[in-house]
Amino acid sequence: CTGGTVSTEHLYKILVIGDLGVGKTSIIKRYVHHNFSPNYRATIGVDFALKVLNLDQETVRLQLWDIAGQERFGNMTRVYYREAMGAFIVFDVTRPASFEAVTKWKEDLDSKVTLANGNHVATVLLANKCDQGRDVLTNNGIKMEQFCQENGFVGWFETSAKENINIDEAANCLVKHIITSENDMLQSEVHDTITPQLETDKGGTCTSCFRSQ
Ligand code: GTP
Ligand code: MG
Questions:
Q1: Which letter does DSSP use for residue 160 in this model?
Q2: Which residues pair with 72 in a beta bridge?
Q3: Which of 139, 173, 183, 206 has an alpha carbon within 20 to 30 A of 125's alpha carbon?
Q4: Shortest CA distance to 87 belongs to which of 110, 71, 61, 111?
Q5: Residue 139, pLDDT above cutoff 80
Q6: CATH code linked to domain 8-190
Q7: 8 CA from centroid of ligand 2 (Å)
Q8: Hey, where are the domains in the chain?
Q9: How many A from CA of 177 to the centre of ligand 1?
Q10: Which residues keep their CB under 5 angstroms from ion ligand 2?
Q11: With 70 as the cut, is the pLDDT of residue 140 above it?
Q12: Pocket residues for ligand 1 (CB within 6 Å)?
């Protein structure tokens, strides 16, 4: 017997998807292994990484599924998406085509996986490589919020795997939304009590923040 401490453990499967070369593997590498490589090696099929978070009394294990962006692996996504609880969809701020593909990735995701209650899985949009400029975004933070609301993203962040910008913040936002959706499923009623703390000056936002204001 270890005494009276009650701790709970969660394991969440999280998908990381988006066009090839947008930085999915690099974001995971930064988040889990705290490093970055400028060399590009395309992911073949899928890779995995595990991140363990200790939050108050809870241990949260994130099983990150790093899915290849290359078109030729696209027919495997149904298998990969199964039982996911959350997702990041990533685009490259220097490549407009990778942003145009975001809605395609979101539709693919929503058509292939839902939670036990039929809801879509919590999804956060990542505008990566923000250290290289913000071509796709140029001064349209408000439009991005509108884009997220219209397309069912719970939030969005400008990130840089290279400079380690906003990656922990984006993951915290996703985890909070996953925990909320899990509680919703357990209690079969809607709670909207979370108030993630974000640094708004770094271009990040989480819809639960503006919903709760
Ligand atoms: P696939 O596996 O083919 O789908 O690509 P991916 O999305 O996993 O991209 P990957 O992480 O391999 O990164 C592609 C290239 O972009 C690499 O050369 C990375 O070093 C570079 N890169 C990734 N993230 C960043 C970033 O935040 N800033 C900069 N400057 N380069 C980045
Ligand atoms: Mg990759």
A1: B
A2: none
A3: 183
A4: 110
A5: no
A6: 3.40.50.300
A7: 32
A8: 8-190
A9: 26
A10: 24-25, 43
A11: no
A12: 20-26, 37-40, 42-43, 68-70, 128-129, 131-132, 160-162
Q: What is the pLDDT of residues 5-25, one digit of tens each?
A: 666 889 999 999 999 999 999
Torsion sign, CA atoms 24, 29, 198, 58: positive
For 1, residues 6+ apart whose C-beta sits below 8 A from its C-beta are none
Q: What global pTM score does this model have?
A: 0.88
Summarize pLDDT for 34-85 with one digit per residue, the tens. 999 999 999 999 999 999 999 888 899 999 999 999 877 777 888 999 999 9
Give the pLDDT mean for 81-100: 95
Reading across the β-sheet that carries 155-158, which strands appear in turn? Answer: 46-55, 58-67, 8-17, 86-92, 122-128, 155-158, 205-206
